Amino acid sequence: MSDSTAVEGAVLPALRLDRLPEVTRALADRADAHDREASFPADGIALVHDAGLLTATVAARHGGPGAGLTDTVRILRALGAGDPAVALISAMTLFVHAAEARTPRWPTAAYAEFLHTAADRPALVNHLRVEPELGSPVRGGLPATTARRAGDHWLLTGRKIYSTGAVGLDRMLVWARTDEDPVRVGSFLVRKDSPGLTVEPTWDHVGLRASRSDDVLFDGVRVPVDDVVALAAPGPATPDAVGGAWGALGLTALYLGVAEAARDWLVGFLHERVPTGLGAPLATLPRFQSAVGEIETALTGATVLVDALAADIDAGDPDAPGRAGAAKLLGTRAAIGAVEQALQLTGNHGLTRANPLQRHHRDVLCSRIHTPQDDSLLTAAGRAALDRHPLAAKDTP
Amino acid sequence: MSDSTAVEGAVLPALRLDRLPEVTRALADRADAHDREASFPADGIALVHDAGLLTATVAARHGGPGAGLTDTVRILRALGAGDPAVALISAMTLFVHAAEARTPRWPTAAYAEFLHTAADRPALVNHLRVEPELGSPVRGGLPATTARRAGDHWLLTGRKIYSTGAVGLDRMLVWARTDEDPVRVGSFLVRKDSPGLTVEPTWDHVGLRASRSDDVLFDGVRVPVDDVVALAAPGPATPDAVGGAWGALGLTALYLGVAEAARDWLVGFLHERVPTGLGAPLATLPRFQSAVGEIETALTGATVLVDALAADIDAGDPDAPGRAGAAKLLGTRAAIGAVEQALQLTGNHGLTRANPLQRHHRDVLCSRIHTPQDDSLLTAAGRAALDRHPLAAKDTP
Amino acid sequence: MSDSTAVEGAVLPALRLDRLPEVTRALADRADAHDREASFPADGIALVHDAGLLTATVAARHGGPGAGLTDTVRILRALGAGDPAVALISAMTLFVHAAEARTPRWPTAAYAEFLHTAADRPALVNHLRVEPELGSPVRGGLPATTARRAGDHWLLTGRKIYSTGAVGLDRMLVWARTDEDPVRVGSFLVRKDSPGLTVEPTWDHVGLRASRSDDVLFDGVRVPVDDVVALAAPGPATPDAVGGAWGALGLTALYLGVAEAARDWLVGFLHERVPTGLGAPLATLPRFQSAVGEIETALTGATVLVDALAADIDAGDPDAPGRAGAAKLLGTRAAIGAVEQALQLTGNHGLTRANPLQRHHRDVLCSRIHTPQDDSLLTAAGRAALDRHPLAAKDTP
Amino acid sequence: MSDSTAVEGAVLPALRLDRLPEVTRALADRADAHDREASFPADGIALVHDAGLLTATVAARHGGPGAGLTDTVRILRALGAGDPAVALISAMTLFVHAAEARTPRWPTAAYAEFLHTAADRPALVNHLRVEPELGSPVRGGLPATTARRAGDHWLLTGRKIYSTGAVGLDRMLVWARTDEDPVRVGSFLVRKDSPGLTVEPTWDHVGLRASRSDDVLFDGVRVPVDDVVALAAPGPATPDAVGGAWGALGLTALYLGVAEAARDWLVGFLHERVPTGLGAPLATLPRFQSAVGEIETALTGATVLVDALAADIDAGDPDAPGRAGAAKLLGTRAAIGAVEQALQLTGNHGLTRANPLQRHHRDVLCSRIHTPQDDSLLTAAGRAALDRHPLAAKDTP
Question: Where does the Acyl-CoA oxidase/dehydrogenase middle domain start and stop, copy by copy (chains A, B, C, D) (predicted)?
Fold first, then answer.
């Protein structure tokens, strides 16, 4: 079939980037309801799946479209403009497929099986890393979640927090330590509905409410002994600069989509609102034109920046991943700033829940909480700049 | 000859982008003296010429290197880091050659003659547009400078202000009106040392002092009747979006170069400065690392943005010129902000004239004064965003 | 009795400023529940009444404590730190009493009767001014709400929006026009439970949810013919500079209270949060100390500013009211900025609804929507500065 | 005489606050020349002396006007608006007199003699504290400048930097250590023209050029053995909170004066500038009105803040000195921000040395360099806020 992609006897949905605008609209129609109820957006995920967007990054060698980061940021910006909760849940799956496309690390059978599922229905996967005691895992340390060897299985016990899309995940890549001596760490592949697996509905955030980033409890969950990704001695994580850049640029694009939705609502409002005393739409006032110009300029700059780095990364530019942190910091600031300015311009209209702007605002505030966070990015960027200086060597004794 | 480019019997200096670092250093060595004396940097211009940078944008069909905007922003960033006055004077010449490469408008003989000069020595050219009474010409209106027909010559009379590099220009493209009925406007080509031409040393700015952007008086200056570029009926200027983008991106790159020089000085200072109480360089303090990170992040983002749009424009992307305004606004803000932060971090050390930072600061403040200015950019960006909305049509009666 | 104040046979609750801390705490305990349910905080209003805070500004000549603006900003800051919805509802009543204390305008009997009610139980009053068609009334124009004369009564018909505390008001001062020729405008005194009066629960804001600033419908509501305040020919409102300053400073203080609550939560969080890798509270890190310092500095400055102007106004300084707009603009920016910074510092912890910071954030964003809004304040301040110049006269033809 | 103040046989000039406007104007007339030449403004100091402003803070018990901080900030704001170099030099003398008025620490004869000089002519005095090796003295450490005992004199040797007004000082209070065992530190009183005293004209700053904050070298300068102020064992400086507040508020007022001068120039420019296309002054455009409103609002807020704290300090409020740091940080930011905005609004006109705005800008940037600097203020404010929390005790082991 010309319209689809074959994978080992299964057929992934064809990638239909041309359907992005309609997907955005359909997601937007349901976003308010999901936000109010903080309900998992299964309907939205289905739409994303149907348009082939959820499997866009499956490698060509696996029968997928092999979309790069350029397409991924385009997809995530569009989904983010519709419903950023759907976009975030989708992003996690896209990132897992993209990582596997770059460097195969899953057990072969496990990935093939997962792709078969993905051909049938929306198949979500996500890394579960964060634990209550730990702070963010990227800053080092052993996980408390522990895999105990029992014959041909691991028994996994622990708690993960901030587990985006937990109730809808087909697979969880649970970062855990073994109880071996010497200890090893890796990502244990847990299937949905495994006995001992419980999702606790702890997520009650101001924003991205439908992302259901709940706690997940593992109480002796069985994982086949080979279903572990990258099991190895603990140590300073080999920095995956390209993977980090996918995350940074992909999520920045997602929140730029939120800001675009806010801008679009604002533009419509300014056209529709005709104060009695003015007799013309607010859109005709220089003050509002200039303010919209600030928003537009910020979003244009951030979008060009993200797109340019995504293209550079797809082209294999070795310097590009090192600039992704700057794009995240500047891009999320631009997105937040744009929505905040829209709020300032619209007074009560922007703050009432009858209009979506306040939701965009609550959502866009979540852009800062994804790692790496601003303070880490700034310190890293500063050290890199300082280290390029000839005198840098002598600072460190 | 492998090292040069032939042009109709003359030889333009070969374009040596590899020499940019040394040119930057050589310009930087002399920048303080030129700033203090507000003296025309003829020595720096000669260096730029020798490295083929001043003729980089001469079209291949004219025997030049035919450099595009990608190379031009690279050149101007490097020159700006050395001496932005040299860079600004050079930029004007580069823009004129680039415009002629895109769309030939000079009289053929006049351009050929100018290229012969450019093969022999640094040959500078600039548009002289601004007049005391007019405000900025891009906002419309007829010039007061008038060309009166006298046989096979025009006699040109008027005053131009902000004429960058005036004392060093080989050619001036003087925007003027004719005394005909109906009136025409165009750029009259004036040669250096023409009788009736006087440069008044009125330029006494806080920054870019060596750019010598003086007043130029024309008192019946003779211009051969054919030496006029684009003589035509006045009217709304055909917007030259690509030319505008060259100016916006080129000058933004120039000031990003200034900011890079400020960052480099700051980084050196932080490595060299070892407070007694600390016993280690300031560079080891998280507070300074984070602050340098802010600067580095801003400059990285702005540089990627400018470079990406320059590449898009070279590739003929029709949407790219429309984004150049955003890059100018964001890029000059980034440049100014970076230098201001460096000033804040260094106290008395940054403000003393014994160190170059205060000069970088005075120079970078000039970035905002080049047209289009921020308020115009914002209003234009806002209107464009508002006009994309379906309701836009009904706003205008 | 030493503990109370006599009023024409009734006894207003004694003003107990010493009880402010406990009232703040009690309100804070219930604020989350009222926010989630968007429920009218009758319990909180009762506490405010019991401590004599709701009648603090009743004039001494009416048997009240006669508190000035100095005490009022202190009260509103404390109430705002507890529950800004309670504070806002209370503020409206305090402002009405204070205005009556400065310049009696109520019918004598009506005010006496209202004070008797206020002696018995929490008696709330508010001006209802804003209408859907009108924009904000301070910018001029006739109200659409109309009073038709019917014998010894007016029959009031219309709709008011943003009617803070509507369901709990004992009295509404409804700004309306008469159907007379020539027309008059004034504030018609409507009692709770009047036939024809309906409160529509339209208020669904992101912040100040418990303020219940609903729509109120009047369908032929009877108002005794004398129960009208300041009935007069329409015209440019006599600017009540002192009354405007009470509103501006009082509401700014209220939101500074919200910001104080946010700061206090942040400080506690930084003391309690001990990252594993750090082994000490976040409060020990210079980065957080400096960030708290930004917040503290902003709040200190804004609080001194508001308090100083309040004292000046109580002292009758004629220049002070003209500075109240600056205090509102700077004070609300400081309050919003402080809470936003706290959000940035605390990531997921600040954004989860398990913690109050996100509520403080949603609440403090409402500070900007009270008139006069920032754009009006800035234009007014700018014009005043420009008009002081000798050349100002010639600008206006 | 009714118009003067008697002091032990001498007569200090009468304090004439009513002459502040004319002094401001006279200083402003000469400020540009002093800035260009970086020349000591002896003429301006004479004007300040003649109006009694230089001795305003001499205590009543010494026959002076005994002006408090309220008058001092008023004086310094007015002088700063005229010529901040004159203001800064004067401020140092005012602070010394004020400190002596609060707590007598000078040798009696030495102070009496100094007052006699001050009756005859402008008598300047300043603390010389900073040394090249030391960083700022407020952060602790022993000075390198050393007093060696030789009979009934000390012989003082060392170098001080940033010695404001050095060439014009009648007295220098030179912070130095003795060569005794155990060592003592104190302020050694050096007279002008002492043998061994050399002023090196090292001051070449971008701003406050006429303040001549040069290096001073002491090569065995003789100081009578009793002419030492506060000679004592070294140790953590007893924090002089009130003295610190005088410095913080006084200097902030000075720079607010600079910003007022910038605003006044801007206002005049906007009235005078009539673009051809507009046909009316820029002052009539809402964009400029709003921008002036930003500046005006910032300056109003900062001025009320400084004035309020000055009054509180004069009234002995024990909490007020602790808030002076906030006023310095917010006030200098307001001053710098106001001038920067004026620069942004005026393009080339603001940046040319033909207009004073660029000088105001260079001057106002110096506001940040006076101790305590922003980072110290923020950390101190943050720690104070954190330390108020009940959990604070447990942070420190």
Answer: 131-221
pLDDT class of C10 with cuts at 50, 70, 90 = confident
Helices in B20-150 by DSSP H: which ranges?
20-37, 42-50, 69-82, 84-102, 108-120
Q: What is the tens place of the pLDDT at every residue in C168-207? A: 999 999 999 999 999 999 999 999 999 999 999 999 999 9
Chain C closest CA to B182's CA: distance in Å? 35
* Tally of residues, chain A: 397
**Are the beta carbons of C149 and C177 closer than 8 angstroms?**
no
Question: Whole-model pTM above 0.90?
Answer: yes
Name every residue whose Cβ is closer than 8 Å to that of residue B397 and which is 6 or more positions away in sequence. Answer: none
Measure the CA–CA gap between B1 and B5, rounded to whole angstroms: 8
- pLDDT 10s digits, D158-180: 999 999 999 999 999 999 999 99
Q: Which residues of B touch A283 (CB under 8 A)?
A: 386, 391-392, 395
pLDDT at B20 over 60: yes
pLDDT at B237: 66
Report the amino acid identity of residue A272: E
Same domain as B138, residue B113: no
What is the model's pLDDT at position D8? 56
Alpha-carbon distance D364 to nearest alpha carbon in chain C (angstroms): 20
The answer on D290 and D195 residing in a single domain is: no
pLDDT-derived band at B6, boundaries 50, 70, 90: very low
- Selection from B47, B21, B22 nearest residue B34 by Cα: B47
List the single residue in D204, D276, D351 with the smallest CB-CB distance to B205. D351
For residues B222 and C327, give the distance between their C-alpha atoms in angstroms, rounded to a whole number. Answer: 62
User: How does DSSP classify residue C144?
Assistant: S
Q: Do A379 and A257 fall within a single domain?
A: yes
A118 and A132: one domain? Answer: no
Those residues whose C-beta lies under 8 Å from the C-beta of residue C296, and which sit 6 or more positions away, are: C263, D326, D381, D382, D384, D385
Please count the structural domains in chain D: 3
Domain end call among C232, C256, C272: C232
Task: Assess whether C216 and C289 both reside in one domain.
Answer: no
CB of D146 closer than 8 Å to CB of D178? yes
Burial label for C239, CB within 10 Å (0-12, 13-18, 19+), is exposed
Residue C89 maps to which CATH number?
Answer: 1.10.540.10
Which of D95, D123, D151 terminates a domain? The answer is D123
Q: Is residue C356 part of a domain?
A: yes
Of A205, A277, A361, the CB nearest to C135: A277
Closest residue on chain D to A287 (Cα)? D287
CA angle, A228 then A232 then A234, to 5°: 125
Distance from CA of D203 to the nearest CA of B (A): 8
Q: D322-337: per-residue pLDDT in tens? A: 999 999 999 999 999 9
User: Residues D382, D312: one domain?
Assistant: yes
Nearest CA in chain D to A285: D286
CA distance readout (Å), A296 to A14, C74, C334, D39: 33, 42, 26, 49
pLDDT over threshold 80, residue A282: yes
Q: Looking at A94-103, A253-262, B274-283, C43-52, which range is the least confident one?
A: B274-283
The residue ranges of DSSP E strands in C38-145, in sequence order, are 125-128
pLDDT, position A48 = 98
By Cβ distance, the residue of A293, A323, A388 closest to B382 is: A293
What confidence tier does D276 reach under pLDDT thresholds 50, 70, 90?
confident
- A289 and A346 share one domain: yes
Residues B74, B146: one domain? no
Chain D positions touching A290 (Cβ under 8 A) are 287
Dist CA B111 CA B126 (whole Å): 13
Q: Which domain holds residue A185?
A: 128-232
For A141, the token pair is 């340390």
